[in-house]
Amino acid sequence: MFAHEDQVPLATLATHQPTLREFDVGQNGFLPSDLPLTILPDAYYKPWETVIHQLSELIHGRELRAKVERLPVLSVDHLHTTPEWRRAYLILSFLAHGYVWGGDKPSEILPPSITVPLLEVSTHLDLPPVATYAALNLWNFTSSSPQLTSPDALHALHTFTGTEDESWFYIISVAMEAQGAVIMPFMLEALKAAGRKDYLTIAVALDDLSSCIRQLKSLLGRMYEKCNPQVFFHQIRPFLAGSKNMGPAGLPRGVYYDEGDGKGDWIQLRGGSNGQSSLIQFLDVVLGVEHVASGNSTPEPECGGGEMSFHEEVRAYMPGPHRRFLEQIANRGSIRDLVTQLGNSPEEQTLREAFQAATRTLADFRNKHLEIVARYITIPARKHASGAAGKVNLASTLSGEYGVAGEKIQELTGTGGTALLPFLKQVRDDTVRAGNTQCPTGALSS
């Protein structure tokens, strides 16, 4: 088990320990407590392991689709432990995205050799049958050190491109998840303290949270070190796309999950995105940041007609226990609920200032994310780089989004199917707005 030296052991938080274990939240937060498996132990799954270990070469040689079509439809009966189910999900979702996007044109049909076991594994893990953040990041790393907050010690188990750029892209998120794990027990204590109006405990926890978010921002800023924007945009990013809002990229109906014998369904799902990080949503829930943007390709200022916000929708793309953990925390109320009702005593003013500082720090983190998006997506999309020539995918579609006169042809779309820039700006603005505590939003439930 990998524990952080500077983290309070969960054993000291006896009232929370059973709850955290129940929701699969451990010393590493939403990351596994033990390193993910590098191979399925039962030799029955050797056909899967052979292909996943050759994935980048097979994609590069345009051989993956033929290889996948020759795979037998394997049973999931030989999967026994949670790490084994997770690795099966990782393998099958990587193969699915490699199959769909690994040609000059996307494949609209996923063959039974992938569809059948992927649907079963996804149901078991309470996840959608697509490459989620969990598959790409949470369960797709190894480490040479027990200190998971250092990206230099981490490496992705599998990539589509075989590049260091892609591995670095994934493990920056892994390091951020590990860093965020440090603050989670303290914020849970802060929520308890809010119920008894222990202002000092909450203020100290918020100061620690601000420090943690600054560390997350610093880790995000390290993306530039080993992930080239052109490599990311043209080689890596297309494989992360899902099938929702991907008509311009070649999937107008989504993907047909062929189960064989005439059985199957057309499915549209969002691709992997950092919006599926339970850690980031945990910070929002604790602070009381509310998001209304739907994240659809044509965003509306408000989610009318009962439409879920993007953040509510993508909880279905998180591992089931993590989703239920966030729901339980949200039901307790937020620190903002308490702050909006504070008076003007010195202790209350200190708490108010700590809360406002934390929301500003989270907004700064989201500004950094916007900066990353500009460098890795917006700018490459305007360059019409030759790397995407002849292909139909998310990169080639967006490379042509600006005409020769600079006129805008279409909105930038994220791998999760969102209208990227308007959505991210709205999320940032929602965070800033949460820091305005003049109007009460309701009492904190005890």
UniProtKB/TrEMBL annotation:
PANTHER family: INDOLEAMINE 2,3-DIOXYGENASE (PTHR28657)
Annotated TM spans: none
One example of a Gene Ontology biological process annotation: 'de novo' NAD+ biosynthetic process from L-tryptophan
SUPFAM superfamilies reported for this sequence: Indolic compounds 2,3-dioxygenase-like
A cellular component term, taken from the record's GO annotations: cytoplasm
GO MF term list: heme binding; indoleamine 2,3-dioxygenase activity; metal ion binding
Name of the protein in its database record: Indoleamine 2,3-dioxygenase
Keywords for this protein: Heme, Iron, Metal-binding
Binding locations of heme b: H369
Pfam families per UniProt: IDO (PF01231)
Family membership noted in the UniProt record: Belongs to the indoleamine 2,3-dioxygenase family.
InterPro entries, sorted: Indolamine_dOase, Trp/Indoleamine_2_3_dOase-like
Coiled-coil spans in chain: none
